[in-house]
Queue: 3 jobs
Job 1
Amino acid sequence: MAGRTVRNRSSRAGTSRAARIAAAAACASLVLTACGSTTDNAAPAGGEGGEGKVGVILPLLTSPFWQSYNDYVPKMAKSEDVDTNKTVNSNSDPSQQITDINNQLNQGVKGLVVAPLDSAAISAGLDQAERKGVPVVAVDVAPEKGKVAMVVRANNVAYGEKACDYLGDQVKTGKVVQIMGDLASVNGRERSEAFRTCVKKKYPKLKVLEIPAKWESDTAASKLDTLLNSNPDIKGIYMQAGGVYLAPTLQTLKSKGMLKKAGEKGHITVISNDGIPQEFDAIRKGQIDATVSQPADAYAKYGMYYIKAAMNGKKFKPGKTDHDSTIVKLPSGILEDQLPAPLVTKENVDDSKLWGNTVK
């Protein structure tokens, strides 16, 4: 995802998962009302001034990224004058997330801020919210269909391209590994395809080896171990989620005597996604070389900003915002505020403006 979900359990069959999601979706009452969508500085189009409780649903809490996001939620809710319920953790289970949405709706929330686990499955929950006239803001993952007031997200295609360019400039030639996220998530798909396409187009001397790890740390560790046994000449690694993959990747490299510091002979160039404090420490130690800072603080801030706007009936249009981002219209017709996500290396890792340097 942050798209980064940690599912340390066996995979479920598609039909079983679909059945559970459908059952969860059926639990909500079907009360039909209208709900507003969300332009910077637009005047309210009605509503009750954003009054009412807002439900906040997390994908998981086993990743440092989502732990940080969870910590930011009450602070940003207060700064944006939004009254939230206690956050709910769906624990990496898409069907549970639908149940969590229904539970919040049955409690009478007037808005929802949700970080979807599955880009397709989330539509069942979005449909229930629409039937009850409750606006939804999606954070980190864009749904494939369903109504949301806004998606608050960084450009995940840019994540893959930045990783490609960094490894291409540093490695030049040889084998590089892409440890992918869950391809059921648009985040995993976009990062993977962007990296793959960029390498093929711009760095043909690199050979990409791929590990489909589903945002699961154990899966990443075991598959990386196996891959390194048959490919000990790996020169670079792209981890699509540092919150999930950093620790197992470093441990696997260390166990094989392949964890060399930057500048040392045999160092494997590593770039990640997330921008958590642990990645920054690893950059300072020379264990990894770079990460793309996914803005956990801004996800929480603008999740609150847009849900309040939606509850007030404000509307937004594609274009530049006043907070250094761009709102785009996705092929589905949904609006997405693409927040900036800077590349972090040893040159700027101590920048006090990076959220990973503000977390205690």
Job 2
Amino acid sequence: MSELVTGEAVALELRPARLPSRGLAVLLDLVVAVTVYVAVTIVLVASTASLDMAAQTAISIAAFVLVLVGGPIAVETLSHGRSLGKMACGLRVVRDDGGPIRFRHSLVRGLIGVIEILMTFGVVACIASLVSARGRRLGDVFAGTLVVRERVPVSPAGFMPPPPPWLAGRFSGLDLSAVPDDLWLAVRQYLARMGQLDPRVGWAMAERLASDVAARTGAPVPQEVPPAAYLAAVLQERQAREARRAFGGGFAGGGPAVTAPMAPPPSASPVAPPALPWAVPPAVPQNAPSPGARPEEPRDTASGARPGTGFVPPA
């Protein structure tokens, strides 16, 4: 397994192809190329019988270059690194950063392949592939490419961690309508692969995603909440809203639910958490006793007094 890290700090797990599979793929490509070259040569000999020897030699050299050199280059360029032999063996040529190859990559690989594969009968390519840690031949080294395996065992889907219980219902008042779908997708992918990332890289990505989400919701991230926990709680809140909207929960948009009572009863003793750092207050009062309400932690407050916390009931 070879782990490559792209410019977006995304780790790509690639399995480099080894010498046996690469040799079989090259052998299949050579069989196809030689077969086409022989057929083209027979047609050219039959059609150029009236020409002199020099013209026939020039045509033969041009056919050799076009079929055995230009053919593999064109096939790899058009198929983005999948020749006939590589498709049969489940291989693909990619760049060092995991991206698709272009014409210049195929050109360098093809020109150097003439020397290390055709002229030396593959001896140089075999030695270079055995010495390289990722099984690369000289053409791959100079072109900046890597041959990887496409047919790998399917790994189980990443586990989506739930938010901490003490964050349940804390972000129920956030306006999530301005958060784009691609940002939600990035949050889901990060949470699913959070355990596979380097701790420092994962923390930096969580801070960046949390700041992006907070910028679109208009409420800053609480300082006492870790970025990953904030993302998990906000994503769970969005999923809960989508579920209530789909199953008749009374949602009309990204705002709060209307099924719960909008004003707290006068005798309710629990109060909202003090000193909440975001600007949008929770729309559904946490002190309203209703079926299906999220559990809240008990707080040591006086039952007859209601301290001022800046909570403004919605109109």
Job 3
Amino acid sequence: MPTNAPTAAHALSDVTSSDTTLRRFLHGLPGVDAVGLEARAASLGTRSIKTTAKAYAIDLAISMVDLTTLEGADTPGKVRALGAKAVLPDPTDRTAPTTAAVCVYPDMVAVAKEAVAGSGVKVASVATAFPAGRAALEVKLADVRDAVAAGADEIDMVIDRGAFLAGRYLKVHDEIVAVKAACGAARLKVIFETGELSTYDNIRRASWLGMLAGADFIKTSTGKVAVNATPANTLLMLEAVRDFRAQTGVQIGVKPAGGIRTTKDAIKFLVLVNETAGADWLDNHWFRFGASSLLNDLLMQRQKLATGRYSGPDYVTVD
């Protein structure tokens, strides 16, 4: 199996030796053909999935969900209920897989950790002044350390989009490196907020920047802006991780987040993964969905395949 991200800094290390070399590398990446990218994403989205394959895809998608609640009104009770649902998504059918993780704010990590104890479900925490990332580095690192100390298995950080868009690539790189160090054994997902990066070229540059800095996952979005995960921006990121592994031997995960609500949507993304990065990424160690409502639709469609009946929204809990 390919190596994890901590060794990535040793590959292409000369690229990150200065602002000048990093800029030269990132701006030397091939330009993105926007029309071609969107056409390919749309074409892959039309693939027909038969019943047996659909059943497999639904269970795979369930196992890839980072079940998420990131609201100011989150309570310990809500997080406990979310954790229980992650561990046992369908109380009427114990063959349904668990989700990959629950994703919460740092102050709810301990509650989530207790709720999923012994299940194998991971606890992910957003950090680094999520969702805007507008804070001093020491504040961001303290945010990360608090979450890890509370038991977070994974950290979802946001990059400084202002610095990135201003071309201060080494600042963004060095912040990711520092956050990765603060994570300790926790895996790091680096959120780009693709809806704010303006161009596909910027998304490609951000993908390589995150991977060079040691990200374990690259992630599209916070789910807090108007444009979140799309087939096109996810396809572009899948191409980046594929090419990065080909060049360095290091495999990096991808997490589209925000706006993926239906089984049909999820299956389209799984097709993108298989056809672009390859089957090695069809595992929740390497691919995740950041979602809150997607799981409900997956469970309803799973029940329909099993029984031939569609139970409707009352079949699942309201998160």
